[in-house]
Amino acid sequence: MLNHSILHQAAAAILLLSAAALAAPKLSTKRELSFDYNSRKVLGVNLGGWFVLEPWITPSIFSDWASTTTVVDEYTYTKTLGKAEATSRLTNHWKTWITQDDFNQIAAAGMNHVRIPIGYWAVAPIDGDPFVQGQLPILDQAIVWARNASLKVMIDLHGGSTPSSALVRKTASTTVAAAGPSAGNKARQSPKP
């Protein structure tokens, strides 16, 4: 059973989305897709390691712990550093990892889409989690950069905040298991924080 905090967050999100939908101006004509998914091939690249840290994509961020196994993901990174230091380091990373020039180069290489993973904690943080926020204004800027480069954006809400979602964290054994039908989802043993 979901805890009440998560249910309240979900209800608040639904209410906010409903209010936004009601306040949005009504279009008098049907808006056409700006990309014909029926006849054009999606050619894209993943911008991983930007808003969701993964040591294999961004090893330099984890270099302070290269000789240990205490910091293995964004959860243990932010927990180890604390909110203030993690926010400072991650804000710098978010602002410099990808730029307008990267989007321009992606488009020049013939791509027409970018996939941007972002963690649930950027949108709906859970009390007690060490994750930090501040990604959304930079994600907004990324969408502008993509538009300027004539790229489409696929936003991937990464991880999940409930046991039924894509990431399950069992604190007793610190087993992190990716669930679901996706290829490559495997349980791994992470060290105790």
Describe this entry's structure for a reader.
- This protein is an alpha/beta fold.
- It has six helices and six strands, in the order αβαααβααββββ.
- It is globular.
Number of helices: 6
Please report which band the strand proportion falls in: under 5%, 5-15%, 15-25%, 25-35%, 35-45% or over 45%.
Answer: 5-15%
Unreliable stretches, pLDDT < 50, 5 or more residues? 163-193
Secondary-structure element sequence?
A: HEHHHEHHEEEE
Could you tell me the mean pLDDT?
Answer: 78
How far do the termini sit from each other?
Answer: 26 Å
Report the oligomer: single chain
- The rough form would be described as globular
Number-wise, the strands total 6
Main sheet strand line-up: 1-2-3
Largest beta-sheet characterization: 3 strands, parallel
What is the helix content?
A: 25-40%
What Rg is obtained from the alpha carbons, in whole angstroms? Answer: 19 Å
Determine the structural class based on helices, strands and strand pairing: alpha/beta
